[in-house]
Amino acid sequence: MATAYAKEHIKVADELYLILALLHRENPQRESFTIAEIMARASAEKLGEDRGSQKSLRQHAYEHAAGNVPPGKVGGRYRMVFRDIDNRVRLLRTSDDVHPDRHQKWHPERSEVPHKYHELLDWARQWQSSAPIQEEWLPGLHRLKGLGKEIWKGVDADAYVRTLRQGWE
Q1: I need a labelling partner for 69 at 20 to 30 A (CA). Which of 75, 94, 126, 142 fits?
Q2: pTM over 0.70
């Protein structure tokens, strides 16, 4: 049995995810969307109208939920959307690189969104996983973070370099 949505308002990150899913489904030829397009579609959908200002939705699209950018000092470490170089935004795909400090929410839970969007959640998850995984020529350096650190545990880096340089002249 599905849990009924009983909250007074939807979380901003969940609203962003639903709005982008709607935009992707309505515009299958488009890869990403401007923040202005996201804001206009959010206004038409009226999901977060109880918040008054939609400034937080803009901030989530630009930073808080953008999985491929370093998280800011404030806000979550969500990984729900992908922000392109030109600041256009789309749903994050399973094949996208994610910043290593982004480890929170990937998509909304069914119980946290109104029932009428459950079919959209299913559609969006399918869309997110449908992109072919591309072979990377040079994987992101962030994947190497911490690799081999046990080898150097207790070793003074300066002393090690000095021993390597002995005899150079």
Answers
A1: 126
A2: yes
